[in-house]
Design a protein that fits this description.
- 76% of the residues lie in helices and 0% in strands.
- The longest helix is centred in the last third of the chain and has 29 residues.
- Helix 2 packs antiparallel against helix 3 and helix 6 packs antiparallel against helix 7.
């Protein structure tokens, strides 16, 4: 019998994914209405939210909680987290419109493909078959690089709200470009190899 089918939806790994989504309104409310001390703590909260992205996957592997639906819960939590950050900082005028537009468009396309793949019993990362595709989309190195890049970007954006430093502002623009390019690159294998699931 397949043990993966016996894993309940409400397991520890999925709970971490859901918890990091629930932390987002706290983070945003602190930055909108908190005092300077709380706003500086929001930098740490940003770090925690992104660390939880690593933690849910590690817990799923370590405690054998990996499921097809769990991989999609992780992606959905990633998407909600990332888009919340992009749209929040866009609303403050700290990121250019083109960046979230590209990220959102790429996400909608890949999520459509992944949803169709799930209907055909393929997990988020199971649908990628080529070595190059696996390296770009699901390798620990690339996922880590992308996660750290996003974390650094949003931590610097958070810091820019309380710390008046030219260095912080100078770092933000190249980080935006790096994150968007990496996002697009990681989407290409999903589109290229997953297009068949739309037929």
């Amino acid at each position: 019998m397949d043990k993966k089918k016996e894993i309940p939806f409400f397991n520890f790994a999925n709970a971490i994914s859901i918890a990091r989504v629930l932390l987002l309104p706290v983070y945003i409310l602190i930055l909108l209405y908190g005092d300077i001390f709380l706003k500086n703590l929001a930098i740490l909260l940003c770090l925690i939210i992104f660390f939880m992205d690593f933690l849910d996957g590690w817990v799923a592997v370590k405690f054998n909680l990996k499921t097809k639906i769990g991989s999609h819960v992780d992606v959905i939590a990633d998407r909600i987290t990332e888009l919340s950050f992009w749209l929040f900082f866009l609303s403050l005028g700290l990121v250019p419109l083109w960046a979230p537009l590209i990220v959102i468009s790429r996400g909608m396309i890949t999520d459509l493909i992944r949803a169709q793949a799930l209907m055909k019993q393929k997990g988020t990362y199971d649908m990628i078959k080529t070595k190059t595709g696996k390296l770009i989309v699901s390798s620990r190195a690339m996922r880590g690089f992308y996660g750290i890049s996003k974390m650094m970007l949003f931590m610097f954006l958070t810091a820019s709200l309380t710390i008046n430093s030219q260095l912080i502002h100078d770092i933000i623009s190249p980080l935006i470009v790096l994150v968007v390019i990496t996002c697009v690159l990681r989407g290409i294998p999903v589109i290229n190899e997953g297009w068949k699931y739309l037929k």
